[in-house]
Amino acid sequence: MRILVVEDEPTLQRQLKSALEAAGYAVDAAGDGEDGHFLGSTESYDAVVLDLGLPKMDGLKVLESWRREGHAMPVLVLTARDSWSDKVAGLDAGADDYLAKPFQIEELLARLRALIRRTSGHATSEIEVGPMLLDTRSSRVTVNGEPVRLTAQEYKLLAYLVHHKGKVISRTELTEHIYDQDFDRDSNTIEVFVTRIRKKLGVDLIRTVRGLGYCLEDPGTA
């Protein structure tokens, strides 16, 4: 999963980026509204953490512009403004959730997990596909109750497929959502990761759709 953090306070931006990366996300960061708007308009993200009090372009304007442009990624708004009218303005502008500063990083991570789950139609942190269970809270995967050891990149790829169960996902889309902007992306490595994941899971869950990409589905699904 790939997250955009738009926060102008350098220390908080570093803390957020570090915490999100430690939680297994690919993270891009912007320090002002103009850069944040550009990234959100031109790159693919599974969620955005957006401060409202930004230089160059206010966070509300950034959010309103994204929604006018048709960008539907979930947005978690951060702000030092704690009046009810500011909360209403943020939600009306298209925010999906709201967190007032100061806050605990664990709460932010939990809110992001919930936003991403709801966007993909999952109600809980534990997502089952056949005999496999993926826990987004602990980043653990089991098959028939037995733990499966995955690398960070393998987990990111599998988690993205799990959140989009039943849909055909192209190699390009997978590449865009498991690597951050600065990573030297190579879609050819996706095939390597898929092969490794299949071997480690030991069950046939990931189907190759020739010329299109991959689809994760329950065993026996046509």
Overview of this structure, please?
The structure is a single chain. It contains 8 helices and 11 strands. It is of the alpha/beta class. The protein folds into 2 domains: 2-119, Response regulator (Rossmann fold, 3-Layer(aba) Sandwich); 126-216, Winged helix-like DNA-binding domain superfamily/Winged helix DNA-binding domain (Arc Repressor Mutant, subunit A), CATH 1.10.10. It has a 5-stranded parallel beta sheet, sandwiched between helices. A 4-stranded antiparallel beta sheet has the order 6-7-8-9, with helices on one face. A hairpin with a 3-residue loop joins strand 10 (206-209) and strand 11 (213-216). The relative contact order is 0.12.
What are its keywords?
Arc Repressor Mutant, subunit A, alpha/beta, 2 domains, single chain, 11 strands, Rossmann fold, four-stranded antiparallel beta sheet, 222 residues, five-stranded parallel beta sheet
Quickly describe the structure.
Helices cover 41% and strands 21% of the residues. By secondary structure, the chain is an alpha/beta fold.
* Annotation field: number of helices: 8
Radius of gyration: 18 Å
Structural class, from secondary structure content? Answer: alpha/beta
Q: Strand count, sense and closure of the main sheet?
A: 5 strands, parallel
- Name of the CATH superfamily of the largest domain: Response regulator
How many domains?
Answer: 2
Give the proportion of residues in helices.
40-55%
The amount of beta strand, in percent, is 15-25%
Overall pLDDT metric:
90
By CATH, the architecture of the largest domain is named 3-Layer(aba) Sandwich
Please write the CATH class name of the largest domain.
Answer: Alpha Beta
Shape: elongated
Total strand segments: 11
Low-confidence stretches: none
The termini sit apart by 27 Å
> How do the strands of the widest beta sheet line up side by side?
2-1-3-4-5
CATH topology (level 3) name of the largest domain: Rossmann fold
What letter string, H or E per element, gives the SSE order? Answer: EHEHEHEHEHEEEEHHHEE
